[in-house]
Amino acid sequence: MSLDAVLKEVDRNLDSATDRLLDLLRIPSISTDSSYANDCDRAAEWLVSEIQSLGITDVRKAPSSGHPMVIGHADGSGPHLLFYGHYDVQPVDPIGLWDHDPFCPQIVDTAAGKIIKGRGASDDKGQLMTFLEACRSWIAVHGELPCEITLFLEGEEECGSPSMLQFMQENKRELTADVALICDTALFDSRLPAIVTMLRGLLAEEITIIGADKDLHSGFFGGAAINPIRVLTKIIAQLHDESGKVTIPGFYDNIPELPLNTKQEWDDLGFNADAFLGDVGLNQPAGEADRSLLEMLWSRPTCDCNGIYGGYTAEGMKTVLPAEASAKISFRLVEGQDPDVIRQNLRQMVRTMLPSDCTVKFSELGAGKASRFDTSKPIFSAAQTALSEEWNEPVAFVGCGGSIPIADYFQSVLDMNSLLIGFAKDDDQIHSPNEKYDLESFHKGIRSWVRFLAEATS
Amino acid sequence: MSLDAVLKEVDRNLDSATDRLLDLLRIPSISTDSSYANDCDRAAEWLVSEIQSLGITDVRKAPSSGHPMVIGHADGSGPHLLFYGHYDVQPVDPIGLWDHDPFCPQIVDTAAGKIIKGRGASDDKGQLMTFLEACRSWIAVHGELPCEITLFLEGEEECGSPSMLQFMQENKRELTADVALICDTALFDSRLPAIVTMLRGLLAEEITIIGADKDLHSGFFGGAAINPIRVLTKIIAQLHDESGKVTIPGFYDNIPELPLNTKQEWDDLGFNADAFLGDVGLNQPAGEADRSLLEMLWSRPTCDCNGIYGGYTAEGMKTVLPAEASAKISFRLVEGQDPDVIRQNLRQMVRTMLPSDCTVKFSELGAGKASRFDTSKPIFSAAQTALSEEWNEPVAFVGCGGSIPIADYFQSVLDMNSLLIGFAKDDDQIHSPNEKYDLESFHKGIRSWVRFLAEATS
């Protein structure tokens, strides 16, 4: 049978596929640091030639307002699939914590199996290569792909995709397909194949409280002059009540309760909340007291202060009353929440808490709605079948507490549903020193996509 | 009359006295920056030779564990006075805000009279030179000083006097006198001659709240993991109640009410609270609601957060849940408050507010008790007479919201009362760019000390 032939081809090719991934990992395509712009360009070039080597000739490096995109097209009948991944990587700081050069990737034997070590191994070069290698083996066996496929690889995901929206709008026709496959997520609990069906949105705002018109000496003004840190901390302290609920007026309005079947699916996952928190040294869920930990993470909104600063913050002491103090606040949003409304309600709440001789400055740091994907579409069943056959485990339909803006863009700009499948593990150290990707993730990831192509086009 | 002769000598000498001050201002004796250590040493050398030029031969640069002290002795009968000042200066950052080189001092004509511009002009080189120049004119007229005088000049005041305590303990006999004259304070409201009779103490503590054992991604952990910034802001927000009172248990125990005569003296000062706050862009006193602004500044204790930091504080956004967050808290203390007790009560209060999976780290950043000087001593009357005659204004007995640790050291180590007299004005920009000292402050300051020496020894 042809599926078996392709899977055998994948197995036969694993060493050379790994070598190709190592080649890509050697390119330090750090997108946020402009001194690596040439390397980002080199990574895009490398991918163009890689895609050509599959036998896909319609491929190009497409300029954007930032680092280039790579777009390839393979004609075919049946569903039109778009595959998305990103070739850029996070910076490597703190470099001193790496046990090897982040851009000299290595295959290392561990008690848990072979791992591929290097910056980008898991996020996202290793993941995007699972799909390219699946295509390679498929074409090697069949001479062509089973359906129309567009490859769409970005080089700015790790710095907030500043060029994406405009690029997508300008290339709408070329990028529109039946569904977007996004390979940038993880297995559930490092073991079950997972499809992400809900993504939280994000709203971020910087709040600066301004008091006196200059920094003051606490000896001369202490006790008499308002301290913006005191005002700011009172505001932040009141964003949650004692039960962990966010106190912004209207914050929970219009949030639907989780469908019962989804709740059941999540209960069935056997998620170990104690272990999840225990892994990072914690033992008390910090969210709404009446919610399960998975709800706190996937289906309930949050409010967090991600950064706070004001006054003297270096070593020792300076008895300053600062003129201002700032906090970066972000919200993970869920279905039913409108970022603009919540931003306005937050601002209004802050203004009502402001003493008469303080002012406040608000700065928008981003906003995006939550996404929920329609799992009743046949493509979800195809993915479910393919993944459970490859991993010999039931597929987890999971939420994701994070925000993947590209999925929101596909939805809002191209009116495309997304299918988020990835093979990363929780201990892959993405964004951190000593990033790795299990060889198992890479190997079974490639095989998963082969099975998915077969299912989706059968 | 001999006093008149000395005052005339002061007037006659003003230009050369100013030139000598400019010479001292040209030495960049920034004590906190070790790259200026040679300049601190040069300033000490300059002062030794300056004191010799007065005719005082028993003078030396005395090594300490940091920058050197300068000690001079002039024998005499009558009271033994010790004069204290400091020759070191603050750093000049931000240098871009200076309208001239901070170490190329200038005499500039302004609508309000001539000013001496340069780092240290007011704090404290200009002030310490008022006393040396007073001695110079006195000796020029009389051939000797009217009493025994010890000159004690420090080079580390601006970096917290790290060597002072040990130096004072090791040189107890040489430094003990009847009273210490400290010239490092200001006129009241830039117009009335002032004697500081109360100094607030200082207690400083850094509090670090620690949650997870590493920084977490708010997408993966937000809602479930405790955020140390949330805990820290709740703690700081609760340090004051709605009426501006500090909530630490026992904080106000043992604080005596202000004596009625002191309260009356302060009421008589005609202090303009609106103008004081208005000058820095504020209009609401932020302290205890039932206290006057001068009480808030001089006789009531305070609590302020002088610095707060945690999470991502650079430009833009990073959706991090930080592993820890820190605040630098300081208290201005008044008579009756024990820094050690308050520190323990603060720590206990913080511990009771700590969620079970957070820990807290405390770091001591300094402690010193408040001081109150006995104004019934004859030396205070002498100063009062001298100052009111020179300035043609009644003398203000004032409090000082700041802490002048040297006064505490003189008291606790040498059992000496201090007499704090200074001629700085509120707009001298000490510690800031474009520091200046009014030529009037310098001139009338010298004359004030001449009158004081006459009164104190009459």
Break the fold down into its secondary structure elements and pairings.
Two copies of one chain form a homodimer.
Chain A: H1 2-25, H2 37-54, E1 58-62, E2 69-74, E3 80-86, E4 106-110, E5 113-117, H3 125-142, E6 148-154, H4 164-170, H5 172-175, E7 179-182, E8 194-199, E9 201-210, E10 216-217, H6 218-221, H7 228-237, H8 260-268, H9 273-278, H10 293-299, E11 302-311, E12 320-321, E13 324-333, H11 339-352, E14 359-368, E15 371-372, H12 378-391, E16 396-400, H13 405-414, E17 417-421, E18 436-438, H14 439-456
Written account of the structure:
2 copies of one chain form a homodimer. Chain A has about 450 residues and is α+β, with helices and mostly antiparallel strands. Chain A is about 35% helix and about 25% strand. Chain A has 14 helices and 18 strands. The first copy, chain A, has helices spanning about 1-25, 35-55, 125-140, 165-170, 170-175, 220, 230-235, 260-270, 275-280, 295-300, 340-350, 380-390, 405-415, 440-455, and strands at about 60, 70-75, 80-85, 105-110, 115, 150-155, 180, 195-200, 200-210, 215, 300-310, 320, 325-335, 360-370, 370, 395-400, 415-420, 435-440. In chain A, the strands form 4 sheets. In chain A, strands 1, 2, 3, 6, 7, 8, 15, 16 and 17 form a 9-stranded mixed sheet that branches. In chain A, helix 4 (about 165-170) packs parallel to helix 13 (about 405-415). The radius of gyration of chain A is 24 Å and the shape is globular. The model of chain A has no long low-confidence stretch (mean pLDDT about 95). At the A-B interface, strand 9, strand 10, helix 6, helix 7 and helix 9 of A face strand 9, strand 10, helix 6, helix 7 and helix 9 of B. Strand 11 of chain A pairs antiparallel with strand 11 of chain B, so a sheet runs across the interface.
